[in-house]
Specification:
heterodimer; A: 138 residues; alpha/beta; Rossmann fold; four-stranded parallel sheet; 4 helices; 4 strands; globular; B: 222 residues; three-stranded antiparallel sheet; 7 strands
Amino acid sequence: MATKKSRKKANAEIVGFCCNYTVSVEPSVLKERGLVPENIEFKRLPCTGRLEVPAILDAFAEGAKAVFVAGCKIDECHNLSGSKRAAKRVQYARKILEELGLEPERLEMVFVPRGESEPIVEAARELKMRLSTMEGQS
Amino acid sequence: MIIAERKPMNEILGMLDGVKKLLVLGCRGCVAVCSAGGDKEVEIMASAIRLGKKLSNESIEIDASTYIRQCDPEYIEPLKEEGKKYDAVLSMACGVGVNFIADLCQGIKVLPGVNTTFYGANLSSGEWKEMCAGCGSCVLHLTGGLCPVARCAKRLSNGPCGGSQGGRCEIHPETPCVWHFIHERLQEQGEADRLKEIMPIRDWSTAGDAGPRRRVREDLLP
């Protein structure tokens, strides 16, 4: 009856859930070129609308200090309302993080024009800076 | 349906102090429909507890499951044995489910994962409104189908009160005055004269004020 989930330990400091249509460049290339912080893991999804709240919370439980979700711009989603749904789930996950005593700013939703990697690079860098500020304060 | 909402995480984690093995148990009845305790919410709760425990450097083993209903004995029967594997069962069902498990499953510690709030209707995705108070003495045939017990802040039987202004409730100005609606509805139906009759003092003993209520239908008993 009960189901058990096996959970692998992740070491990434930042996890980015990216819609397949938002990242035009292979994430490994972004890393190799030093465009994004080193300790980042990209998780590609067919659509961010498929992303559920537990996946976001699990990323934190597995060691991530910050998470971002990169979906298509609201009116450009390949699946019409995928990124809109993702944004609502991000909002709910932020509420849970806050209830658990984590800063909701550790989780961010970004809307990216199709095929542009720059906003994702910016989001990753911005989160890294936020983390440094938060850790500097604590 | 019965409407419920997830308890705040600090309350949940407080209940789980010392719990090392937990079953988060959902219900596919009302709480699944109102997105408080169905399969999805069970997964969210399990993940949130894992994260909460990790943040306080505690370990916990969590299993998740969802029963068809937690308010019928045949569905919770497996829990009598299965539940013994856990330090606690966090029920995501309404209070009925939690009580029923506590009654029927001896030796199992059951905890509430949601606050059971009211009987309501689904206005739109993510929005519910109280429509019935389960008072046990329905007067909807006298009030145009609109319930003054559930929907009037003062539960008046002969309203509106003097505070109703412009069709709004004086206690919650954002809420329409149900007695205003009742007058309008009966007027539309050509039954406005009905409002001249004074409704007798209500017998609240049917509303649970005389202890837990019970209903028996002899023709259905085993």
